[in-house]
Structures are given as structure tokens and as C-alpha cells.
Write a structure and sequence with these properties.
With about 325 residues, this protein is of the alpha/beta class. The protein has helices at about 1-15, 15-30, 35-45, 60-70, 85-90, 125-135, 170-175, 185-200, 210-225, 230-240, 260-280, 285-295, 305-310, 315-325, and strands at about 50, 75-80, 90-95, 100-105, 110-115, 135-140, 145, 150-155, 180, 255-260, 300-305. A hairpin with a 4-residue loop joins β3 and β4.
């Protein structure tokens, strides 16, 4: 218990900068607190985020603002049907001056990468991101380059238009730690957004945190205490998506085509630790797991045609699982 108290105190002191970053981002982004928290969770746990929402909900503004606050390099890639893998990761080009091939690095070589409308490009372009996301490295020709730390991919997709899109393959989707659904702002927030955008000057964010602080915080997040009972709770949630009948959820058996992968459990534990860190705590509570569960699981549960016919979503299934699995 003494160790937990010490850890709590340490995390409380070291996580103060999180409030500074959040408050600075809220100067330019009205509402969307869930999206901002998700960005911080991805940043602190080394995960990547898939954002789904209609255009104009400040997705690009959020990640550009975050990159400015921590003085990190940011690149935006607009995914289009004619994009090539080389446009993403880079290629070898021949130099007449030196009479040899040199590497021209692509926009993926950055701290923050915004993959805008990722489902607009074919599978070979989407898969070019796989090595970068999973291994934090890129191979061009015969040489492998380690990517900068921190490295965060924020991919967006528009849920409305499906014409001319290429759905992300399961292997690619599974590499995203979180899939975050963002909704329209409230009336009062929208009024403030209009006022902010038509005023003479739009608020600018300031650089307040160094990249080194983020790297240090990432190591601290790993120190956040995760009790064995919480580990079992996470495992039960994952297993309930695979074998629902074992948890009294036999009605889900015909609705789930495949359950969550082992990455779901790993990412739930990491995201829960990062969430606890954001809350200035040195230990993970069951509430932390429940808070991030939907974002971690919603893209990892496959639905059958019966589920789609009955208008049952993966969120309905996750809610049922959270209600059925015993909380420690």
C-alpha cells in the first residue's frame, strides 16, 4: 500500500502537464472532449487512432494543435484513389550528381501523421502504413529506418459516403488502438464555434511541452499499477466477445462472427493505464477499463448478417458484455 501511495504521489506530480496541454487545446477546439482525451491516450500509450465522423468536426485542427503544443513534426496525407505506397513512405531516386541511388523519405517520417480519409485509397496504400504503425519503422529498398518517438497515426474516415471507398482490411483495423466515433457539437458549443471562426483573429496555440516530456510520460504510464483482478476483468471482457454463451450471453452467439483479438486485451490495459495517468492516478480502476472499452473493442468485433438485419451494432454487444461481466 505504501508503494501505491508513493506511485500515486509521483504520478500526480508528473502528470500536471496533461492539464496544461488539455487547457491549451480547448482554447482552439470547442467541445469534443472525448476526442481530445483519446488523442492523449494514443500519445501516452504509443497507440494509433481511427476517427470516424462527418467532415468539419475539428479532426485536423485537433492533431495540428497537439503537434504545435509539444513542438512535434506534423504531416497530413490526403488519401486518394491514385495515391501510391511510395507517396506515403518514400522511395529510392537516382542522383546524377553522385551517380547513386539516394533515399527520399515520405511524409510518414513525422511525429504526427494525419491519414485523412484513409478508406479513399486501395489496399496496397493502406498496407504501406502497417509496418510504420506496428513496428515503428519503415523499409525503403534494402535499408530500414526507425521512426521518431513519439509517433502517432491519426486516420480518419467518413461514415456517410461509401461510394468509391476501400474498406480497411481486418488486419489493418486491428492495428488501431482506438476507434473513436465523434458526433456533432451541442448548440451552445456550435454558437461558440461560429463566433470563434468569424472573429478577426483565430486563437493560436503555444508550444508548452517538449517532446522529451512526452517520452518521459510514456515510460511513467507503464509504471501505473494494474492489479491482477483488473487483468482478469479485461480478459473476461475479451473472452465474452469470443464465447458469449459462457457469460450468460447466449443471445449474442449468432450475432458475433468473430470476437476481439489478443491485441484488444493488450490495448485495453495500455489505454486504461494512460486514462488513469490523465486522471492523475497511479493505479487503474475498473471504471477506467469501462471508460475506454468501447473505443478499444468496437472495431474488433465482427458482426453476422443476422446482427446487421436486426440493426445490432458492436456497441450494443459491448454494452451487453460490460453489463454481464462481473466487475472486480
Amino acid at each position: 500500500m505504501a508503494d501505491i501511495r508513493e506511485l500515486n504521489e509521483k504520478i500526480k506530480q508528473e502528470s500536471v502537464f496533461i492539464d496544461t496541454v488539455s487547457n491549451e487545446m480547448k482554447r482552439v477546439i470547442v467541445g469534443q472532449n472525448h476526442m481530445l482525451n483519446s488523442l492523449l491516450i494514443g500519445l501516452l500509450s504509443g497507440g494509433h487512432i481511427l476517427l470516424e465522423g462527418v467532415p468539419g468536426l475539428a479532426k485536423t485542427l485537433a492533431i495540428t494543435s497537439l503537434s504545435k503544443i509539444i513542438n512535434a513534426k506534423f504531416n497530413r496525407i490526403q488519401f486518394t484513389p491514385d495515391l501510391l505506397p511510395a507517396d506515403l513512405i518514400g522511395t529510392m531516386i537516382y542522383s546524377h550528381k553522385t551517380e547513386e541511388f539516394i533515399t527520399k523519405k515520405g511524409p510518414v517520417f513525422s511525429n504526427f501523421v494525419l491519414a485523412d480519409e484513409i478508406n479513399r485509397s486501395p489496399a496496397k496504400v493502406q498496407s504501406a502504413l502497417l509496418e510504420a504503425m506496428q513496428e515503428k519503422q519503415i523499409t525503403i529498398g534494402e535499408k530500414t529506418y526507425i521512426l521518431d518517438n513519439p509517433f502517432l497515426v491519426l486516420a480518419t474516415q467518413n461514415p456517410i459516403e461509401q461510394e468509391g471507398t476501400y474498406p480497411l482490411p481486418e488486419a489493418q483495423v486491428d492495428r488501431f488502438m482506438l476507434k473513436v466515433i465523434i458526433d456533432y457539437p451541442k448548440k451552445s458549443e456550435e454558437q461558440l464555434i461560429i463566433r470563434q471562426n468569424i472573429s478577426k483573429t483565430f486563437p493560436e496555440v503555444n508550444t508548452l511541452v517538449a517532446k522529451e516530456d512526452i517520452i518521459k510520460a510514456k515510460d511513467l504510464v507503464k509504471e501505473v499499477y494494474l492489479d491482477e483482478k483488473i487483468e482478469k476483468y479485461i480478459v473476461d471482457i475479451v473472452f465474452a466477445s469470443r464465447y458469449p454463451e459462457d457469460y450468460g450471453l447466449s443471445e449474442f452467439k449468432g450475432l458475433i462472427s468473430f470476437g476481439a483479438s489478443p491485441r484488444a486485451g493488450i490495448n485495453m490495459a495500455l489505454a486504461a493505464k494512460a486514462y488513469a495517468f490523465i486522471q492523475h492516478r497511479g493505479a487503474v480502476f475498473p471504471e477506467d477499463v469501462r471508460s475506454i472499452c468501447k473505443d478499444v473493442m468496437r472495431h474488433r468485433i465482427g458482426l453476422t448478417y443476422e446482427a446487421e438485419a436486426e440493426n445490432i451494432t458492436s456497441e450494443n454487444i459491448i454494452t451487453g458484455i460490460l453489463n454481464a461481466v462481473e466487475v472486480p
